[in-house]
Amino acid sequence: MSDVDLGTAFIPALHKPPALLPIARHRETLLYMIETYPVTVVVGQTGSGKSTQIPQFLEQAGWCADGKIIAVTQVRAFAVPA
Fold first, then answer.
1. CA distance 50 to 30
2. Model's pTM, two decimal places?
3. pLDDT tens for residues 21-73?
4. Nearest to 23, CA basis, from 53, 61, 56
5. What does the alpha-carbon distance between residue 68 and residue 71 come to, in Å, rounded to a whole number?
6. How is the chain split into domains, by residue range?
7. Element (H or E) spanning 70, and its range?
8. What does each C-alpha distance from 30 to 8, 69, 77, 79 come to in angstroms?
9. Measured over all CA atoms, what is the biggest interatomic distance in the chain, rounded to whole angstroms?
10. Under 8 Å between Cβ of 10 and 36
11. Cα separation of 76 and 34, whole Å?
12. Residue 47, φ and ψ in degrees, nearest 5
């Protein structure tokens, strides 16, 4: 058995083309919201493409021009006081 680095192993059964991820159908709405409002909170299921696709949407829309950087933060719990 050979050694495999699981951090870089590609498992085809787990791969979904970006266009098939749930977030893809909301691309234009997300870009509009991010452009219009100072803060945008996106909540969705694990594996929906939030953290991988939104930065790519922004880069494709020109947000990285002139050396600008896109930063995406991920909270592990979303709590609202009662």
1. 10
2. 0.69
3. 899 999 999 999 999 998 888 988 888 999 889 999 999 999 888 888 888 88
4. 53
5. 10
6. 16-67
7. none
8. 30, 18, 21, 22
9. 54
10. no
11. 21
12. 85, 5
Q: Of 58, 26, 64, nearest to 44 (Cα)? A: 26
Give the residue among 4, 78, 82, 18 at the shortest CA–CA distance from 49: 18
Q: Please list the alpha-helical segments (H only) found in 1-82.
A: 27-36, 50-60
Question: Exposure of 4 by Cβ count < 10 A (0-12 exposed, 13-18 middle, 19+ buried)?
Answer: exposed
- pLDDT at position 1 is 53
Q: How far apart are CA 25 and CA 71, in angstroms?
A: 22
